[in-house]
Write a structure and sequence with these properties.
This is EamA domain-containing protein. The protein is an all-alpha fold and 491 residues long. Helices cover 76% and strands 1% of the residues. The protein is globular and about 115 Å long.
Length: 491
């Protein structure tokens, strides 16, 4: 114990032996007596613990006073090897260490190179992570501002124009810009640039081997066009009935509905925490209804926004079931096709509503074009960030922008309307927000939590023995300091 084999001791032993033969007063008989022991000791290194124990002997104290550090020098001095000059041996050893490099220099240089590569790799990873987090913050702010801004502009528009379906139709037509905007980004960023026709044909494969045929249009695009229009119409119609804070927080329940439908239809993995989140969402809906006293006006508005959240969840689940996952170009083309469906088949509905005076306006000059166009631009921006923001940041950060729009709308409603934030409404908002955040947890969150707890336990176990070792070593040092020197008894 305390002694280990030195890896490259053969050459070093020869050097020390040759250095010792230089003294003119060396006795050959005495050298032959101790030279085998010196060669054996040269291959050995003494641990620090043994050195500490040896420090209290008189001989070692004498040795350390003249600068003796190696074992063979101490043995020579203790056994009375006359003619030995320790300072000369140390000087020779220092000269040899300067002249010839140590055998550990090459591994040390290799370790430095490896450490440099690892540090550069860590720097690149941290820089990439920071860049992704920075863009994530930008996207979160964009999603929050565009979603809350479009909600508030829709509320202002209804003060002058009571036409939620017409506003839905007008804003959906702007989806036609998705594919042109995507192609501009493709030309700017892609190394292999394609013509618009080539890019269109390649993205059309998303609808099938034959591309975007009439059958594919009616079977794979038209149902989603109906769900898209219905989701936006119910959301806008709910804004007419209740305040924007309640609408925005109740729409956050769509994530819980997505989980329930995915679990039933897509047979997704069952997660208890998401079941809890769904229960919290339902409880929040009930409490939100109770906040205003179950009046017919508020109940209708809450039912409309819950229906909007349900159709949004149905849209997402059916998209995953029928079409699977889409690339950026395919998603952009799909949304542009929805705009084409809206223009071709939904345009007749606002016309009918206008002539039946359900959604009527006196003249086109009375239409608040600024509010309508601003709402459409903000809604387009929101959908762009929601669908293509994952290219530059994490999807969880994008979803946080939706729930952060709730406090923004609450602040605006507090100063612009007569909303009352009673205890029931505040608790309902907190419960729905908590359920939304629970749904953002990844599927492997429990495994990550177990690993984290295991690492913390291992670190605590490692710290406790180290602390005990420090205490024991401190006690030993105190006892050694109080131990009397052996030299006082020899005289």
């Amino acid at each position: 114990m305390g002694i280990r084999e030195f890896p490259s001791g053969t050459t070093r032993g020869k050097d020390v032996a040759s250095g010792m033969r230089r003294s003119p007063d060396v006795s050959p008989r005495r050298l032959s007596d101790i030279s085998p022991q010196l060669r054996q000791l040269k291959y050995l290194v003494v641990d620090e613990a043994i050195k500490e124990d040896l420090k209290w002997s008189r001989s070692v104290e004498d040795l350390t006073s003249v600068g003796l550090t190696s074992i063979e020098e101490r043995i020579l001095r203790i056994t009375g090897y006359y003619g030995y000059q320790p300072w000369a041996a140390s000087y020779k050893r220092d000269d040899r260490s300067h002249d010839s490099p140590a055998p550990a220099e090459a591994p040390a240089q290799a370790g430095m190179e490896t450490g440099g590569r690892a540090s550069r790799c860590c720097w690149r990873c941290s820089a990439t992570l920071l860049k992704k987090v920075f863009w994530g913050v930008v996207v979160v702010l964009g999603v929050c501002s565009s979603w809350s801004g479009s909600t508030q502009l829709a509320k202002l528009t209804f003060n002058e124009l009571d036409a939620p379906f017409t506003l839905t139709w007008f804003a959906t037509n702007w989806n036609f810009l998705f594919f042109p905007l995507y192609y501009i980004g493709h030309v700017c960023k892609s190394a292999e640039k394609q013509s618009p026709q080539q890019r269109y044909r390649e993205c059309c494969r998303f609808f099938g081997d034959n591309g975007l045929t009439l059958k594919a249009f009616f079977t794979k695009a038209a149902p989603f066009g109906v769900l898209w229009t219905l989701t936006n119409y119910l959301y806008l119609h709910a804004i007419k009935k209740i305040n924007t804070t309640d609408v925005s927080v109740l729409f956050c329940c769509n994530k819980a509905f997505v989980f329930l439908l995915s679990w039933i239809v897509l047979r997704d993995r069952f997660m208890g925490v998401r079941i809890v989140a769904a229960i919290l969402a339902i409880a929040g809906i009930v409490m939100m209804t109770y906040a205003d006293g179950f009046h017919s006006h508020s109940v209708i508005g809450i039912a409309l926004v819950v229906g909007s959240a349900s159709t949004s969840a149905l849209y997402k689940v059916l998209f995953k079931l029928l079409l699977g996952s889409a690339k950026y170009g395919e998603a952009a083309l799909f949304l542009s096709v929805l705009a084409v469906f809206n223009i071709l088949f939904v345009t007749c509905i606002p016309v009918i509503l206008y002539f039946t005076k359900v959604e009527y306006w006196s003249s086109f000059d009375a239409i608040p074009w600024g509010s309508i166009c601003g709402f459409s631009v903000l809604l387009l921006t929101f959908n762009i960030l929601l669908n293509f923001g994952i290219a530059i940041t994490y999807p969880t950060l994008i979803s946080l922008g939706i729930v952060l729009s709730v406090p923004v709308n609450a602040v605006v409603d507090h100063y612009s309307s007569d909303i009352v934030f009673n205890s029931v409404r505040v608790i309902a908002i907190v419960i729905i927000g908590l359920g939304f955040l629970l749904l953002l947890l990844p599927e492997e969150w429990d495994e990550w939590l177990i690993k984290l707890l295991t690492r913390l336990k291992v670190r605590k176990k490692e710290e406790i023995p180290e602390g005990n070792g420090d205490i024991v070593s401190g006690l030993q040092n105190k006892s050694r300091r109080t131990r009397p020197s052996m030299s006082s008894f020899t005289h």
